[in-house]
Design brief:
Blueprint (H helix, E strand, L loop, with lengths): L3 E9 L10 E10 L2 E7 H7 L5 E4 L4 E4 L1 E6 L19 H11 L7 H17 L2 E8 L8 H12 L2 E8 L14 H21 L1 H4 L1 E3 L1 E3 L7 H14 L3 E5 L4 H8 L3 H7 L7 E5 L5 H9 L3 E4 L1 H6 L7 H6 L4 E3 L9 H16 L7 H7 L2 H6 L17 E4 L12 H7 L6 E6 L2 E5 L2 E2 L4 H18 L12
Parallel strand pairs: 1-4, 1-5, 6-7, 7-8, 8-9, 8-10, 10-11, 11-12, 12-13, 13-14
Antiparallel strand pairs: 1-2, 2-3, 5-15, 15-16, 16-17, 17-18
Helix pairs in contact: 3-4, 3-17, 5-7, 9-10, 13-14, 14-16
The chain binds zinc ion (ZN).
The site of zinc ion (ZN) has 6 residues, from loops.
């Protein structure tokens, strides 16, 4: 007897990828012990698994793998819409120093991380994201911010890789003036504490994993970068880092080298690295990333927000670099928006409508993202033996959704609010669009209160009113 049978759905397997993966319509998925047992035509599986413990009728629904976001900072939701004094922001450097650090990261507390991560992970699940890679940044909340992250993630039920950002940056001091190794050491300690605790607890049966966080090539010395590689090898946890999100000229002027060159020399790069942004790169920088088989987390919306340009995604793809999708939690948590923006921005940027077709845009948040996180055999597509991270989507479409139109539906029409049911490890965590695990009103209330508390530290009074609560 199987645990679950999803029947009568349009099953988009995306295995081995979106373009060549079979589509079953009507199809069915049998789930046993948190994993996919079999996928096939609905009539066949309904007969074979007639005694399933639970049956979900997927008529009128798309069944597909859950989306995967390979780079974000979930507590950043606390800074959404913060009415800061934008006249202080004259350049990208001001945005980093003020908006990113002084007005947000440096004043984030453990309670803020807990509430922000609960909210962000819940919203992601509700809109179809079942796995997230989160880089936590809160230097004045050390030690302990990752405990708050683990608690929030455990409660909502999302799959996650998390790490704390190792940086020599001194809170409140411009990076050009001073860096301090002691801050990096505190960051390493936080990561190691998490990695060792997950090794002993099992991390919710592997649903939560550690991934060592490193800030950038320009806020860490070569010694810190070398140490990061050593720790990543010791714990086999991989690394998440920001690369080339700032103008290349800054690093070349300061160090005589680009970020990929600095990181290559330090021996940090490798196939277990997820590098966010990767915008301002030369051909030789791209060659370095390709040679080291680095995975890129493409974050087109935040790159646009900072006025940092458009990453050379088509060129990187041509060189065989694995490109996945990240979002930084600066805008909505709806992966549909990021898929659509990635689908459009390169066409506009290169004046070429043939770039990034719909199947490729979807792969950024599915198979490519699973591979980036070292989870290719486990998630990112629907296939027997893989983890049962499954979405059921009820398309609100003005036109027929059929096996031949279902892929473009995702770039043209799909919104996260069309997601109805979400399974992680075979467990229904979202049912009828609502969480089965947490009180959503309480999660939102706590997040709004923590956002107001954070804003207050910036001198901004904003009492949560009935609109929020
Ligand atoms: Zn980031």
């Amino acid at each position: 007897m199987v645990d679950l049978l999803i029947r009568n759905a349009l099953v988009l397997t995306c295995h081995p990828d979106v373009l060549s993966g079979p589509i079953h319509s009507p199809g069915a998925i049998a789930v046993q012990g948190g994993r996919i047992l079999e996928i096939g035509p609905s009539t066949e599986l309904e007969t074979k698994y007639a005694k399933a413990k639970k049956v979900i009728d997927g008529a009128g629904r798309i069944a597909m793998p859950g989306f995967i976001i390979t780079h974000t900072h979930m507590p950043y939701v606390l800074g959404h819409n913060q009415p800061v004094d934008v006249s202080q922001l004259r350049s990208f450097w001001d945005m980093l120093q003020k908006m990113g650090w002084e007005w947000l990261e440096d004043i984030t507390t453990a309670d803020g991380i807990l509430a922000g991560t609960q909210y962000a992970s819940l919203k992601m699940l509700k809109t179809g994201t079942t796995t997230v890679c989160d880089l936590v940044e809160a230097p004045n909340a050390l030690p302990g911010p990752l405990d708050a992250s683990v608690r929030a993630i455990t409660e909502t039920g999302i799959r996650a890789q998390i790490g704390y950002e190792v940086t020599e940056r001194v809170p409140g001091v411009p990076i050009a003036e001073q860096l301090d190794l002691a801050y990096a050491e505190k960051g390493f300690d936080e990561n190691i504490r998490l990695l060792e605790s997950l090794a002993s607890t099992g991390g919710e049966d592997g649903r939560i994993q550690g991934r060592l966080g490193v800030h950038t090539a320009y806020t860490n010395s070569p010694a810190t970068l070398e140490k990061a590689r050593k720790i990543a090898d010791q714990y086999a946890c991989g690394i998440q880092i920001h690369i080339a999100e700032i103008p290349r000229a800054f690093l070349v002027e300061k160090y005589g080298k680009s970020a990929p060159e600095i990181l290559d020399e330090a021996g940090l790069l490798g196939p277990d690295v997820v590098a966010a942004h990767c915008i301002d790169l030369t051909d030789s920088d791209i060659d370095i990333l390709a040679r080291n088989r680095v995975n890129v987390a493409h974050t087109p919306m935040t790159n646009s927000l900072g006025g940092n340009g458009v990453a050379r995604v088509p060129d990187m793809m041509e060189k065989g670099i694995n490109i996945s999708l990240g979002h930084d939690c600066f805008f909505t948590l709806d992966t549909a928006e990021y898929i659509r923006y990635a689908y459009l921005v390169h066409k506009a940027h290169r004046a070429n409508p043939m770039l990034i077709p719909p199947f490729q845009a979807l792969d950024l948040a599915l198979g490519h993202a699973a591979a980036a996180l070292g989870l290719k055999e486990e998630i990112g597509s629907l296939h027997a033996g893989k983890k049962a991270d499954i979405l059921l989507i009820r398309p609100d479409s003005p036109s027929p959704v059929t096996p031949s139109t279902v892929v473009p539906y995702f770039t043209m029409t799909f919104r996260g609010c069309d997601v109805e049911t979400v399974l992680v490890d075979g467990e229904v965590v979202i049912e009828g669009g609502a969480s089965t695990r947490v009180d959503e009103t309480a999660v939102r209330k706590a997040c709004v209160e923590q956002a107001a508390a954070l804003w207050k530290r910036n001198g901004i009074e904003a009492t949560p009113d009935s609109i929020n609560l």
